[in-house]
Amino acid sequence: LHIFDKDDQDFSEMGFNTTFNLQMTKELKVSGHIWHATPAGRKPTCVGETEISVGKTL
């Protein structure tokens, strides 16, 4: 299952209980995301310092 797959009726398919890792660089930092997520328990330098959204996502 790929993250943006669609079924034969053009609906998005969903994957539950999955792990999605973002590999970033120090030049491009991540600030927020869409969907529910939990942190990996570490805060590398590619994670932004600004908290955004209702969930205070870093």
Q: Low-confidence parts, pLDDT < 50 over ≥5 residues? A: none
Total DSSP E strands: 0
Helix content: under 10%
* Quaternary organization: single chain
**Overall mean pLDDT score?**
68
The proportion of residues in beta strands is under 5%
Ends apart, CA distance between termini: 27 Å
Number of DSSP helical runs: 0
The outline comes out as elongated
Radius of gyration: 14 Å
- Look at the helices and sheets and give the structural class: little secondary structure
Main β-sheet, in a few words?
A: none
Short description:
By secondary structure, the chain is largely without helices or strands.
Question: Helices, strands, pairings?
Answer:
Layout lengths: L58
Entry keywords:
single chain; 58 residues; little secondary structure
Walk me through this protein's architecture:
InterPro entries: vWFA_dom_sf. With 58 residues, the protein is low in regular secondary structure. It is 0% helix and 0% strand. The two termini are 27 Å apart.
